[in-house]
Fold:
Amino acid sequence: MPEWHTGSFFISQGKVNEMEKNARARILDKEGIERTLQRISHEIVEKNQGATNLAVIGIKTRGAVLAEKIAANIKAIEKKEVPLGAIDITLYRDDLTEIAKQPLVHATEINFDITGKRIILVDDVLYTGRTVRCALDELIDFGRPACIQLAVLIDRGHRELPIRPDYVGKNIPTAKEEQVEVRLEGTDGEEEVVILQ
Amino acid sequence: MQIIIKNGRIINPATKHDKVADILICEQNIVKISGEIKSKEAHIIDASGKIVSPGFIDLHAHLREPGREDKETIETGLISAVTGGFTSVCPMPNTQPACDNQAQVKFLLDKSAAIGLARILPVGAITKGRQGKEMTEMCELKEAGCLGVSDDGDSVEDPGVLKRAMEYASMAGLVVMVHCEDKKLASGGVMNEGYWSTILGLRPIPQEAESIIVERDIQLARRAGARLHIQHVSTRKSIEAIREAKRRGDRITAEATPHHFTLTDEDLKGYDTNMKVNPPLRSQDDVQAVKEAIADGTIDAIATDHAPHCESEKEKEFDFAPFGMIGFETALSLSVTELLEKGMIDWKGIIEKMSYNPARVIGYRGGNIAEGEPADITVIDPEKEWEYTREKIRSKSSNSPFIGRRMKAAVTDVIVGGQMVLTAGKIVRGR
Amino acid sequence: METRTAIKWTKKNLLGIEDLEAAEISAILEQAHSFKSVLERTIPKVPPLRGKTIVMLFCEPSTRTRASFELAAKRLSADTMNFATSTSSFLKGETLKDTARNIEAMKVDMIVIRHGCSGAPHFLSNCVNASVINAGDGMHEHPTQALLDVYTIKEKLGRIKELKVSIIGDIAHSRVARSNILALKKLGAEVTICGPKTLIPKDAEKMGVKVTYEISEALKDADAINILRIQRERQNEALLPSLREYASRFGITTEILRKYARKEVLIMHPGPINRGIEISQDVADSEFSVILDQVTNGVAVRMATLFLISMVK
Structure:
């Protein structure tokens, strides 16, 4: 398994070809994820000139886990607590009736007023953009934030909506048939990012 | 015209015969029963492997004419009856107007004679307009052809009126056929009282609504010296009362319907209004009691209580749908499935309950395959399996909960008064 | 971290608690919990039922249940339409079947029905393709009321299993009682029913409940009591000698509770309340009364029901 560096860059076509040979290729390991999140956290603080008025909201389930880590990072950097929330977008999905298995809708947990806040919306993989659209709609129902910025661990392309991330862990060009899976200790027991064919 | 029924197993309880033989029918009567009969001009019915029974007699049916010809007419009713193997039918007098005078009886007899399928054995009302107040002109009813009287659909509520009517009927030579229901105790109920009425939240009818009136009528009939026939018995308590009366030697008979020994109150789970009947479907224990009573002779006859209703009337909330289901075309098969195949009675038993005994109950010369007797005969294929479908129903109404059921045993041929009216399961008309 | 349990909801209709498995009841309760938090948002409305039309076919007078269903539907962004008539109007004139077909011709997705005849929702579900939700049928079932009742108990006491719940009043004529008994039994509670013998239905103990005619028995050790409304008609039907005698023998008052019940027993009532008859003023307004929580929870439970059913094609 090649050692991947943190930083936002494209995987060379050769590497992609090599990965295609395997059913499952690891893009990031535990340390890689941590370093990536560290960098994103720094970028967030840099861009927003500190942590004042910031709030981090993760999209359930894995985005919420990443949001927790980012919030902790920001606290470590700025020595300041930032409000943390989690959002379940199921009710806002545009393909709700097409889901074969009915998902159990979990509660959205935002226990602070988002009005006037600079919201960092966090998700694990950015793909079509539809999930983010749901999250934006739902956030607006909670109040009127000053701005919403999007942070994602993986951007795999193939956008179907005009949505662009503000902070990206890794850009991974993929084929539509491929699956990008982010596994996190809190939800999956191990911590890595893999591509499945 | 001559007809020979060849090689059938003739089961005739009247003469205790059960053997394979040929029957020669000439004009209206059975002329000869013998090992082998040959005739060139006779029409041959091959009854090999089949059972030849005296024609079935239904003590309890509703033909709805006059008044509710949208549900059934005498003609469609008799077509349905013949399809089910019945050669004689007792239509209940709860028509509109009620059959409570000789003109009404004459109407029934004339109409059925013109139709020429099954015979009608008329039953007149006990009280004028079935109002439970004044008794009918029973001597004239008898003269017009009635064999019994009944206010079916209701009990005669006033015991004084009923006692006098019973006395009068016994003088006129009429059987008093009683529907036993205390309407006050039933208090607008729609199903049997018990666990299932509790679960389904349907207004209950306690079993005593029937059995109390059964006991009352037995006592009144004994006092009046009347011939009493208890209609559609459905509870263990009623059966115990009848058994006790018979043991004492009372002149009492009783009938039960196929649905009361086939279905239970639990079957109402889906709120199928075609299962809404009066008396209501009872508990498993009552169903068992009915079967045992048929087997031990406490219940003499199987009667259909064929009660046609329009689809639009049954396609309603359970509370609003009328009581009753059709029954001519399923009576034999349900009896075979529930009684014969469960070992309660044999073929002789079935024929006794559907032909021989009903004739005795109503005092009619029939239910007997013997030389010189009228040729009313039903031929049964005992092994045939078939599915009861909506398309097969010959009644004008199709309010049956048995649609879609696999059935055992089928009526193939029916002869009434020496005329073929059903052949290979199809109605034959015109002489 | 909560685990995302994907439940398989397959019921197209909600006709009664009888048709539900314990897991399905739990799924509705869990779903209701999420919806309850939606109701607390600045904008208490979510979009999953956008474009769906829900008809409230109420053939019996009802203010609360209809309002609750209507609000639940609107919180989910469905369009609602009211169709009020009387049960007896179906006896003559247009039948329920015709009415249902007419409503369906307007392209509706769900019909919420309240009807005076037991089994009417079953009948309706056989006439139409739309989903049918029973909002109370005759003396049969009132499934969403039972769901909101068990939700409320679970919310207040943390569980249902092995709790002792007593239902007091006119059990025979109560769809609330039937649905509650079924739901509570399925979730493992011990149920006692209590009322005058004339208002206890035949073979009730076969439902797995304890039957008593003594209020002291019903209150002893009970974790929750559900007090049913007593209808004035029962006196005219000769099922009760008088409401006065009912109140003195079965009415829940502070004194009775102090004498026989645990201090913190949960007081429930499906409403509308006859104060001074089945429940005294002070009990209805006491700190252990959850009557208003039941109303709030009713909206969340009905949202959960409508949402899950809308997912089934």
Q: What stands out?
A: The CA atoms of residues 165 and 172 of chain A lie 14 Å apart. The longest helix of chain A spans residues 30-47.
